[in-house]
């Protein structure tokens, strides 16, 4: 393998915000509670430490998985829709909660993140330093709530992010809150890959990995070798971020398409408080970043999410940019 390539980004361009009326998202019914409520309900989660990814949908199994403070539940999508329609038709007095409709209720306090493998056969549930793996065949058919295997970060920190890798293997990467990137496979322990990592994501196929460290974005091969890297540009934020003690930190990465990587960044003041959010879209002319010989284009959206405030979303619990991709219609959905 040759030496890694240093890609030079083209000039940073301010992205245009162009609305569309081509798509309509309509509620099937009324919202229903996740768990039973009483006359004086308390917040479901700790508002200072909300879960990072508490929901995942399996199209193959027609099931929704939802985290709650005592674990997570598996609910058939059809049952949720029916309960939502019932709430609209009959009113709140007869509303069922999601837990009433569940196929399985897994006791696992402190779940912060759940992730479904690419073949939708295994669900990973992360709690603090632990990662538990559940076979969906056993969970949904036999209601077996005992994990098939597990692993632990040990003393290196808590789980900040978790990503499944390619479809052909049961491997994954884990990012700790201290910036340690690890690699693991089902039934095996974790191996350290890289330190001082701010954010990570893998491409759709799961065989290449994008890593942000400081102001540099690096592309890694399936065996975690560096294939290319590029220095990130923040010129459109420079006038506001050049004050002493102010830094810009990559909060999250979304490799949404072969030729497009989206990064979300926060600006930190001298007290490490978050002040604004920037989104960048980096695109290549080739089908993937691994093939691109030219300069990738950079589109910057300054303070894209005006609704992010300390009293609504506490600082330091990112990632704030949660991207989904509807491949059938080539639509990007942001947080």
UniProtKB/TrEMBL annotation:
InterPro entries: NUP214 (IPR044694), WD40/YVTN_repeat-like_dom_sf (IPR015943). GO terms for biological process: RNA export from nucleus. It comes from Sorghum bicolor (Sorghum). This is Uncharacterized protein. GO terms for molecular function: structural constituent of nuclear pore.
């Amino acid at each position: 393998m040759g030496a890694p390539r240093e890609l030079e980004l083209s000039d940073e361009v301010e992205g245009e915000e162009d609305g569309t009326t081509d798509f309509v998202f309509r509620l099937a019914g009324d919202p229903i509670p996740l768990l039973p409520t009483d006359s004086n309900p308390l917040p479901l989660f700790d508002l200072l430490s909300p879960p990072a990814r508490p929901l995942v949908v399996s199209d193959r199994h027609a099931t929704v998985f939802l985290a709650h403070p005592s674990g997570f539940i598996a609910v058939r999508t059809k049952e949720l829709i029916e309960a939502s329609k019932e709430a609209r038709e009959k009113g709140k007095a007869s509303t069922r909660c999601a837990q009433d409709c569940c196929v399985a209720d897994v006791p696992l306090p402190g779940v912060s993140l759940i992730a479904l493998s690419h073949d939708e056969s295994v669900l990973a549930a992360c709690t603090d330093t632990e990662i538990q793996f559940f076979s969906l065949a056993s969970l949904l058919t036999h209601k077996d709530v005992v994990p098939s295997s597990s692993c632990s970060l040990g003393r290196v920190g808590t789980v900040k992010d978790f990503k499944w890798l390619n479809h052909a293997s049961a491997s994954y990467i884990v990012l700790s809150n201290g910036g340690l990137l690890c690699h693991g496979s089902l039934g095996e322990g974790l191996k350290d890959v890289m330190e001082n990592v701010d954010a990570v994501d893998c491409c759709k196929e799961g065989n290449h990995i994008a890593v942000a460290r400081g102001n540099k974005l690096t592309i890694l091969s399936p065996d975690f070798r560096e294939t290319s890297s590029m220095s990130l540009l923040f010129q459109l934020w420079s006038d506001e971020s050049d004050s002493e003690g102010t830094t810009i930190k990559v909060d999250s990465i979304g490799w949404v398409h072969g030729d497009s990587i989206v990064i979300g960044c926060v600006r930190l003041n001298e007290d490490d408080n978050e002040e604004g959010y920037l989104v960048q879209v980096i695109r290549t002319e080739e089908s993937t970043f691994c093939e691109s010989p030219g300069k990738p284009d950079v589109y910057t959206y300054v303070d894209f999410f005006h609704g992010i405030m300390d009293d609504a979303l506490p600082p330091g619990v990112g990632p704030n940019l949660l991207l989904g991709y509807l491949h059938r219609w080539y639509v990007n959905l942001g947080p």
